[in-house]
Predict the 3D structure of the following.
Amino acid sequence: MKKHLDITVKGSVQGVFFRASTKAVADQLGVKGIVRNDPNGDVFIEAEADSMTLELFLDWCKEGPERADVISVDTLEGELKNYRNFEVVRKNR
């Protein structure tokens, strides 16, 4: 069964290719959703997949790409939005 997670990644996570790397991993795992930079320096992700896939995805989020320094990863379960793909949101709406 699919789940929707709102994921907030805190730390040195902007300017280290976090969004692009997140998309690559999401595409590889089959996770759907979005990733964007928040003005406060966090990275915000909406991810949809089955529980096992989301576990793997979260494990990756806790590490991030090579130059990232992840301090914490907060998750909140939300309502499914049935994303069709995974996209990088370039700027805040």
User: Anything to note?
Assistant: The chain has a mean pLDDT of 96. The first strand starts at residue 2 and ends at 12. Strands lie at 2-12, 32-37, 43-50, 69-78, 86-89. Residues 51-63 form the longest helix (13 residues).
